[in-house]
């Protein structure tokens, strides 16, 4: 779905944990560079290629993948991309790098998690475990808060720790689009914040997650792309201020 010139929101169906849902990676490009922000999981690759093609950007032109965070539904697709295009550069925040690289194993495959997947068909359980254990890729370049990437109309990195310690949002300057990852979500049409429970135990908590959103007030935002809820463009800056003021976590309306 076209959001602005040279910026496309991809729409990927994803079936994990026995549940059908949609995720929304973002593609940004100019004449020289093509950047994919978050990648879905391994079986999303063909859909990514098709949607890139439909947007007029061939997969062969892809230069870089930026991961907004370490979580598996954002990064598990990177390996498949690299197997076809080994020169694609992988960028992420320093604090999530060791998890994406597998230097620190995500403590997800614990008994509580296994209990949640135990009723799924065995091949599905194996697929999930395999994804958690074998999705690690090397992060070539780390990104820092406030860094400006001079590509594709200008991209500003905004460190928004909370959901994960190295979670980042990206602000696409020329289209005034915020790629929010999981720092923001949409629930019943309303903009809400991240999950109240942080994903990892690295000293970030729910308060940090909401406080980090204050940085977003420094940007004039026309569109927000949330990874799990898609596009939000109804007075985004005002809506972000309300998320902070009313501490609207993702669980707020559930
Ligand atoms: Zn996510």
Short descriptors:
alpha+beta; 8 helices; 17 strands; 24% helix; 254 residues; Metallo-beta-lactamase, Chain A; seven-stranded mixed sheet; 26% strand; binds zinc ion; globular; single chain; six-stranded mixed sheet
What would your notes on this structure say?
The protein has 254 residues and is of the alpha+beta class. The protein has a single domain (2-245), classed as Metallo-beta-lactamase, Chain A. It contains eight helices and 17 strands. The chain has helices at 45-54, 72-75, 78-84, 97-100, 111-117, 122-133, 206-212, 236-245, and strands at 2-4, 7-9, 12-16, 19-23, 26-29, 34-37, 64-66, 89-93, 141-143, 148-149, 155-159, 168-172, 177-181, 185-187, 190-192, 223-226, 230-232. The strands form four sheets. It has a seven-stranded mixed beta sheet with strand order 1-2-5-6-7-8-9, with no helix packed on it. It is globular, with a radius of gyration of 17 Å. The model has no long low-confidence stretch (mean pLDDT 90). Zinc ion (ZN) is lined by residues 71, 73-74, 182, 227-228. Zinc ion (ZN) binds next to helix 2.
